[in-house]
Request: fold
Amino acid sequence: MKARSDKLRGIKPKKRTVTRRLPPEQRRAQILERAYNFFSEYGLTGQTRHLASACGVSQRLLYRYFPNKAALVEAVYTDRFATTFDEAWLNELAVGGGTVRSRLIVFYQRYAEKVLTRRWLRLALYSALADNPFAAPYTDSVMQRILDSVASMSVHGMNLQRPHEGNALRDAAWMLHGAIVLGGIRHHVYGTSDAATWFREIETSVDIFLAALPALLGQQGDAAPSAEPG
Amino acid sequence: MKARSDKLRGIKPKKRTVTRRLPPEQRRAQILERAYNFFSEYGLTGQTRHLASACGVSQRLLYRYFPNKAALVEAVYTDRFATTFDEAWLNELAVGGGTVRSRLIVFYQRYAEKVLTRRWLRLALYSALADNPFAAPYTDSVMQRILDSVASMSVHGMNLQRPHEGNALRDAAWMLHGAIVLGGIRHHVYGTSDAATWFREIETSVDIFLAALPALLGQQGDAAPSAEPG
DNA sequence: GGTTTTGTTCGTCAAGTGACGATTTTTGGG
DNA sequence: CCCAAAAATCGTCACTTGACGAACAAAACC
Reply:
């Protein structure tokens, strides 16, 4: 209405921004990709207008693909956040070649590089702080399986016996996992550590884990792997 | 203006909410205390109106004590967030009595109980995610000193030699510290672990750290402390 | 080429949101 | 008991922000 009467009155019409048209599936995927980065940087309270601008489309278009902001956020979690883990890594960890030490290091360096990225970690933290229910179930189940794999593979690979009671083994696996995740937080979120330091810490953490395992289980294991990889 | 004419016109005047008057210093302290809890729960984007309501005062009053919201947030960091650590703990860790193991456990359980609280951890994460510059310098300097103390006290207490090069010792201290902090995040932020589990993990983490230390430094230390505290 | 379909934008509303001038009311000193 | 000082609130402004009806224009179809 307004625009039309402006035009009739001779006021120069605002030039409409032109955006390349895309098939719906493609546009939706593009929005989700940008939204993943956007929300991980600015948090779940980031504005839809800013997100739209980051996508190079109008704000209104977001509401053609998602009924509201909450649905868009949820889609980011289910379509992008929860699909980063590669099941093959666990398999390689369990039955792959090489020493226990090298398999653990390869697994965790890959995990750090592909999963514990800046955007993944930040979004995981944002959702935890906001009591967002979408991230927790996924991360929980994946982490449980990682812990199980790491624990049993290490015990088996070092010719130890799995303890019948107590939580020492699980606690140890948690400590290893936790050290690596916190290294990622320091690197990606706090910015107080560089990538090389983080990757070196992964090696040291694996060494500590393996060196402590026999004593922790009260058993005599195979010779501990070299503690001086350099 | 409006209120007065309403009164003249006979419209019932809105009953003014009564709030107990406080001396400025006391009111300011009360606001900061509530704001600490408030921002740690709802994030730094929490609304001033909600905070005021949580304080039981009007929104306008906040602006009598702080020029703007940013100044209020900063005051929370400098006056409440950065004053939790007790220097005496470090001293006790360095020269206190008991075994290396028991001193480490006492120190970290105290640290976990007094510093790594729900509100402290949540606010630390919120500020890190928001690139808030107030928390990082404080946490950095405190953590550096903790790491130094833990490392040298452990090396000395186990009759080991401080290595002249390499980062293995520092990495190990980081791993210990990181495991405990991440336990706190799981407990307070993710809610996937209870307090008892966390405290038991602290013991196990210390055991792992101590068990691995001699091998990690390529030296023969004193007998490792019992790995089965139960 | 005309018509239909639909991807995309414009304009705008209502609720929210930090900030602050004006006003009210408690308090303490004389 | 009165009055000045100041603690606290009310009302409101300007801007933000999620949401959406209506208009527009690029493809697709015949």
